[in-house]
Amino acid sequence: MVADLSEFQARVLMALVEGYRAREGMKDRIRALNEWEVARRSGYTDISYAEYSEHPARNVMLQAISTLQQRGLIQVWERGVKYDTFIPTPSATISAELTPTDESPPEGTASDQIATSNEAIIARLDEIANLLRSIERKLGGT
After folding, report:
1. What is the DSSP code string of 30-98?
2. Model pLDDT, residue 116
3. How far apart are CA 3 and CA 55, in angstroms?
4. What is the pTM assigned to this prediction?
5. Exposed site from 5, 73, 95, 100, fewest CB < 10 Å?
6. 75 φ, ψ to 5°?
7. Is there a contact between 92 and 74 (Cβ–Cβ < 8 Å)?
8. Separation between Cα atoms, residue 99 and residue 84, nearest integer Å
9. Using an 8 Å Cβ cutoff, are 68 and 11 in contact?
């Protein structure tokens, strides 16, 4: 079933399944991921929660989510004021487990791989710093 999904749709599905699994042991209402969280986890967007509601990228994400719903891979957990929340269906979980991972070794030397990894870490830290600055601004930082 995952084989007939586009690469983007498969990435969205995997982000939802992995995010849902990462919250195992929590109440279901907390385990469900809203569409913005899925977009962030899938690497599709890095815009803020508030910006996402008006951003054109949201339409693309909603199309992917709609396709996954039509194929019975995800379902709406709760309709939200700003964003709906979603959970994977059992067939999505099984499909995600059967999806082969790319186990081919990355190209380049070990030092290239480390540099790429470091760049990803730095980018993530920048994202975290921006988020913290945003929170500080909203709380009227000291």
Report:
1. HHSEEHHHHHHHTTS----HHHHTTSTHHHHHHHHHHHHHHTTSEEEEE--SS--EEEE-HHHHHHHHH
2. 58
3. 29
4. 0.62
5. 100
6. -140, 155
7. yes
8. 26
9. no
